Amino acid sequence: MSTLIKGGTVVGPTGPYAADVLVDGETIAALFAPGRAPDGPEVIDATGKYVIPGAIDAHTHMQMPFGGTEASDTFDTGTRAAAIGGTTTIIDFAIQRYGEVVQDGLAAWHQKTAGRCHIDYAFHMIVGGVDDDALKAMDQLVNDEGITSFKLFMAYPGVFYSDDGQILRAMQKARSNGAMIMMHAENGPAIDVLVKQALERGETDPIYHGITRPQELEAEATSRAIWLASVAADCPLYIVHLSASKALEQVRAARDLGRNVFAETCPQYLYLTLEDQLGAPGFEGAKWVCSTPLRSGKESHRADLWQGLRTNDLSVVSTDHCPFCMKDQKEMGVGDFSKIPNGIGSVEHRVDLLYQGVVDGKLSLARWVETIATTPARMFGLYPRKGVIAPGSDADIVIYDPAVRTRISVETHHMNMDYSAWEGWEIDGGVDTVLSRGEVISRGGEYLGRAGRGNYVKRGLSDYLI
Ligand code: DUC
Ligand code: ZN
Ligand code: ZN
């Protein structure tokens, strides 16, 4: 079946332009100058609206076992919420725990996702135990499974932590097979000392989660990861959830030298603060416990991150969607912040929250689309199938209405969370219609998709490698 999206303004990484978009079956067939398309297909009127590629969230954790519990969104609830919010592909993290066979960890993720996703999905692999077998498995995943990026942790000793020798070995492997190393860059052993000392002083409230993870320990780990990647012959390195000015300085310096170093940030670091959210009275701040943590509003982090997005020192905005309910989950940390499961849920709101950056004059329309769709596709080997409105690409398309207002609330969101980290936030704009591979799955607030229609997508190597 063919559909014509007519009268809208297509936004691509080169900017906005007027065009009508012809969708044939699951793909985009052609773009026409306004009014020049042949009659016949069913028409979706996009007058006054933006037509953008379906957004790609390159960092989600659905159903992730973590902190003694499991992230509260299943692949069903989480991908449905993502779809409603204009995200048509997620890249989730399959996990190999220490002592586990990498391929078994991957098989477990295929089992969790099979028949449950509303949108297309791909995987990165968390390598929790770098050894000879895991290194061999990295080749197999790149060659056969379409998994071309591997996340390592410099934090969480005893859980996912890799030491510097393990990191170097994994980076050398990635350099040889073309994969990307994704790094959780925080100095975990040093953080553990600060956490212990804080608890001994009786500092148990959620705000101490942030205070015991100072930006210096993010910057130090970021710098160390960059130097280790340099020793590994400039292994491609992608710093996840970058939150702090000093960490950004490290990335910027490496990029100025032309290094294969990239970074993402997340909406929570662009808008929320240590004082206002993590420091909320009583146990309320637990809602915003995530790692890396929210940073001080008295420093320049948020302004620096917005600038980093403009200069491409930050290339991608992902959510690090890792939701936990307050009841029974975050509550595990009453009286001890270190027991609060780490994570915030935003998979439904990223497109809107970043559009607010356009309204506020912090991002161009082109950069909005680049950071939420085109660059994640190119960074992680999904381009040009995803991330662009172009003939031959999957017809993953969002029609975005700049004239409406969106109010975020637990009362109206679709994520499986008993609170919203963005309660009461109002956005100038909203998702109107979402197509996933040519099928309208959400229109004017009505959800039309279904679990199981999303496909697993094998990825190629990053477009950005030299
Ligand atoms: N950070 C979080 O906040 N949650 C999941 C894992 C992580 O690194
Ligand atoms: Zn992380
Ligand atoms: Zn994460």
How would you describe what is shown here?
Helix 3 (132-145) packs parallel to helix 4 and helix 7 (215-231) runs parallel beside helix 8 (245-256). It contains 13 helices and 21 strands. The chain starts with a strand and ends in a 19-residue tail after the last strand. An 8-stranded parallel sheet has the order 8-11-12-13-14-15-16-17. A 7-stranded mixed sheet has the order 3-2-7-18-19-20-21. It is of the alpha/beta class. The chain is globular and about 70 Å long. It binds dihydropyrimidine-2,4(1H,3H)-dione (DUC) and zinc ion (ZN) (2 copies). Residues 184, 240-241 line the site of one zinc ion.
Strand order, largest beta sheet: 8-11-12-13-14-15-16-17
Kindly report the average pLDDT value: 97
Helical coverage, percent range: 25-40%
What oligomeric state do the depicted chains represent? single chain
* Low-pLDDT residue spans: none
Report the total helices: 13
Q: Helices and strands: which structural class?
A: alpha/beta
Cα shape? globular
What is the percentage of strand-forming residues? 15-25%
Distance between the termini: 40 Å
Largest sheet: 8 strands, parallel
By DSSP, the count of extended strands is 21
Bound molecules: dihydropyrimidine-2,4(1H,3H)-dione, zinc ion
Radius of gyration: 21 Å
Write the layout of secondary structure elements.
Blueprint (H helix, E strand, L loop, with lengths): L1 E5 L2 E4 L2 E4 L1 E5 L2 E6 L9 E4 L4 E4 L1 E6 L4 E2 L2 E2 L4 H10 L2 E10 L5 H12 L6 E8 L4 H14 L3 E5 L10 H14 L2 E5 L3 H13 L6 H5 L3 H17 L5 E3 L5 H12 L4 E5 L1 H5 L2 H5 L22 H11 L4 E2 L32 H10 L5 H15 L17 E11 L18 E11 L2 E5 L2 E2 L19
Parallel strand pairs: 1-6, 2-7, 8-11, 11-12, 12-13, 13-14, 14-15, 15-16, 16-17
Antiparallel strand pairs: 1-4, 2-3, 4-5, 7-18, 9-10, 18-19, 19-20, 20-21
